[in-house]
Amino acid sequence: MKAASVFKSCVGGLLSLALCGCVQSTGLGERAIVKSIYMDFRAGSYEAVLTVMDWKPSADAGSAENQPQVYLGRGRTVGQALQKAEDQQSKKPFYGQNDLLFLGQGILQTDITPCLSYFAQENAVRPNLMVFAVRQNAAQWMEQKEQMGKIVEQSGLMGVKTQGGQEISTSLYEFFRHEGEKASGWMPIVTLHDNGLETVTSLAVIGQGKQIAVLQDEQTALALCLAGKSTELTYNGAVGDNILSFIARGVRVVRQAQMENGTPKLCVMVEGEFQEISMDGKTLYGDKAKQAAAQINRFLEESAKKLSQKTFEQGNDVFAFSWWMAQEDAAAVLRAKEEGELYRDDAVDYQFSLSAPKA
Asked: How do residues 202-218 score in pLDDT, each as one tens digit?
């Protein structure tokens, strides 16, 4: 009786393992390892492109090499488009190693909310899924097949680099700030180069699910600092009548909320030090550097106000300014929002105090 009981227990255990898939696991060669997903929306249909690492035996016994393959699918829903892309090959897709989602211009101009919601609710994708915008349509993205290995590798876990070398990214869940509302926030716009390398020179601002503005040049650098993604400001371009280039590192953003005549306001103070300032290709020192620093601070304050016009004043609080205001008086912030007085053009004031380089 005891032997029979043990036998039954073993059989039951084996059946349980079989049902949960632990005995007959899918081998690496039988899996389609998805490394990136591209989504777009055109002519009433979603388009999905899966970048799959196809494991092939190599000349060395016991080893294998991964070769990128791309598969396109279209459907009326995100799920249908992905399924059609999966059906273009015979292996079982595995999304556990994918942390990259690229969005085309069509879906950015329509509504990214259904797409992001799908992946937010899909347990198969990684919770740290990073979202980037690209300018290529699906056909153009497919043409990047030969460079896709470099693109995926370079994006990595930290994000894509700016021209100044800063790694930036925006995760999936950063777009869902308030339950029941459409996606809002910002995402890096990735520029692909012929050698497969990527850089970020601009940011797409998302409001009510779609792209409402594009940030470029110094506004990109400012947005990264205000969002807590960077502690560096770099710029090379016109400031007034001069061509100025500067690098500021160790940038700190201090936020101070206050009430003025019963309405909430926020003072955003940006502090730090310029590492280098040059004018027309010549490095500035001493009094000339101090004069240039003062000019740049005024320039950045004006740029920050223009940034607010594209974001906060549109009711798109991508830098969580209202949260900081609420630390002073949450009831006043709620009341101002309900009365349509929160996103005023004078609600946020900027003060830049970046000091000149040390001699």
From this structure: 899 999 999 999 998 88
> 3-state SS of the chain?
CHHHHHHHHHHHHHHHHHHCCCCCCCCHHHEEEEEEEEEEEECCEEEEEEEEEEEEECCCCCCEEEEEEEEEEEECCHHHHHHHHHCCCCCEEECCCCCEEEECHHHHCCCCHHHHHHHHHCCCCCCCCEEEEECCCHHHHHCCHHHHHHHHHHHCCCCEEECCCCEECCEHHHHCCCCCCCCCEEEEEEEECCCCCEEEEEEEEEECCEEEEEEECHHHHHHHHHCCCCCEEEEEEEECCEEEEEEEEEEEEEEEEEEECCEEEEEEEEEEEEEEEEECCEECCHHHHHHHHHHHHHHHHHHHHHHHHHCHHHCCCCCCHHHHHHHHHHHHHHHHHHCCCCCCCCCEEEEEEEECCCC
Instruction: Give the tens place of pLDDT for each residue, 118-144.
Output: 998 876 677 778 899 999 999 999 998
Q: Please tell me the pTM assigned to this model.
A: 0.82
